[in-house]
Amino acid sequence: MSSATVLVINAGSSTIKYQLLDPATAEAIAGGIVERIGEDMGLVEHRYNGVEHSENIHIGDHGDGLREVLRLFEAHGPHLADANIVAVGHRVVQGGSVFPHPTLIDDHVLEQIRDLIPLAPLHNPGHVKGIEVARELFADVPHVAIFDTSFFQTLPEAAYTYALPRELAAQHSIRRYGFHGTSHQYVSEQAAMLLGRDYKDIKQIVAHLGSGASISAVKNGEAVETSMGLTPLEGLVMGTRTGDMDPAIVLHLQREAGMSADEVNTVLNKQSGLKGLCGENDFRELLRMIDEGNHEATVAFDVYVHRLVKYVGSYMAVLGGLPDVITFTAGVGENNALIRERVAQALAGFGVRIDPEVNNVRSKEARVVSAPDSTVTIAVIPTNEELAIARQTMDLIGQ
Ligand code: ADP
User: Fold this and answer.
1) Residues 357 and 210 both lie in one domain
2) Which residue, of 184, 188, 232, 271, has the greatest Cβ tally within 10 A?
3) Over 52-80, what HEC string results?
4) What's the gap in Å between 305 CA and the centre of ligand 1?
5) Environment class of residue 181 by beta-carbon count within 10 Å: exposed (0-12), middle (13-18) or buried (19+)?
6) Whether residue 249 is found in the same domain as residue 338
7) In what side-by-side order are the strands of the sheet with 103-104?
């Protein structure tokens, strides 16, 4: 292995996902996940050369976790000494208003990421630990932070400002930050390539529909709107998150149901969305329930699509006209033909037409699924956040 590689690390509160990539060829050489860090029994999975190795083992903390990753590479390949790792790219969920671009990590940057913990209490603590340990274990190469929020730092003030008292908002850094930015940026760039158009010259809507879901409007290569806000809770209906709702519901639950702030937080983030509506958050299962005539599952699906259509319509207005392309990505967007069909149907009055046959073909490739006479191209583009992180890392270190 001679070409330069990047190790991408996504350290969560109790997991570490990692991938070794060749950014030039887009090849994912090896990767895996360490799960249930700090629990009695953890789980590690490592993939290399088409072989997957998994093992149950206790993992005390993030340091143990990353040392375990090193051991997995040595035991199951490839040997890291031969892997030509030129940099480590770290995914960081919250970069606040501090990080509009990928940033080389030094002690000061790490401190700034730590300072952002109040804005991302579930994510940034894991990132900080992951970065600390990785900098020790991979001391000879540069470490780069890639932020989920950076792509949305171009949002106009009117789009990122909540109508709260100015001083209060400023004091607590309350504004819309947006998340999934690495995916929205990668997919919108790929969409321009798929259309053979200049990225700086087209209007786009990107729907990232995974277990978390967000939608963005991208104009002339810059994000101008996105559905997630101060936290990833705002916007679309998600697997277990409510998305938009009247904020007074929070107060109502506290006053009338006697819930604490933490309990309301759990309800809104973990027990709502599709799961709250029909008990199921996986779309494959949801479709099966709909086929069986389950009313709650049908309503859950309709609520999901209704919110999505509302956003697409409002983003057309924000973009000042029909977009050149609407792209679906992530687990649901890439695999669920029915959602794409329902959104296209809702937009039929604007001349949007899906090609039902092409839309129903399963594929891992970037593809157009609209009919040739559609006023807007509908595309499906697999997202690849690890590759995007590896490439941005490489760009930053100038290789
Ligand atoms: P994450 O946000 O966790 O990265 P993904 O982008 O992998 O999530 O999306 C996960 C979701 O994608 C699952 O919850 C599931 O509902 C949906 N999904 C995955 N595969 C399929 C499929 N073949 N058909 C329909 N939905 C799918």
Assistant:
1) yes
2) 184
3) EEEEEECCCCHHHHHHHHHHHHHHHCCCH
4) 16
5) buried
6) yes
7) 51-57, 42-48, 27-35, 16-22, 5-11, 85-92, 143-147, 103-104
Q: Which CATH number goes with the domain that contains 326? A: 3.30.420.40
- Domain of residue 236 covers 197-385
Residue 278: exposed, middle, or buried by beta-carbon count in 10 A (0-12, 13-18, 19+)? Answer: buried
Q: Are residues 81 and 219 in the same domain?
A: no
Cα of 331 from ligand 1 centre, angstroms: 3
pLDDT digits (tens, 9 = 90+) for 57-68: 999 999 999 999
Q: Which atom of ligand 1 is nearest to the CA of 330?
A: 6
Answer whether residue 1 shows pLDDT above 60. Answer: no
Specify the pTM. 0.96
Q: Report the number of distinct structural domains present in the chain.
A: 2
Q: What is the pLDDT of residues 269-316, one digit of tens each?
A: 999 999 999 999 999 999 999 999 999 999 999 999 999 999 999 999
**pLDDT value of residue 122:** 85
Final residue in a domain of this structure, among 88, 114, 147: 147
Residue 241 counted as domain residue: yes
Ligand 1, closest atom to CA 362? 23
Report how far residue 111's alpha carbon sits from residue 128's, in angstroms, rounded to the nearest whole number: 9
Dihedral sign, Cα of residue 249, residue 250, residue 256, residue 257: positive
Identify the residue whose tokens are 């057309």.
Answer: 316
Annotation marks residue 148 as catalytic: yes
Work out the mean pLDDT of the chain and round it to a whole number. 96
Q: Would 318 be classed as within a structural domain?
A: yes
Domain end residue (candidates: 147, 174, 206): 147
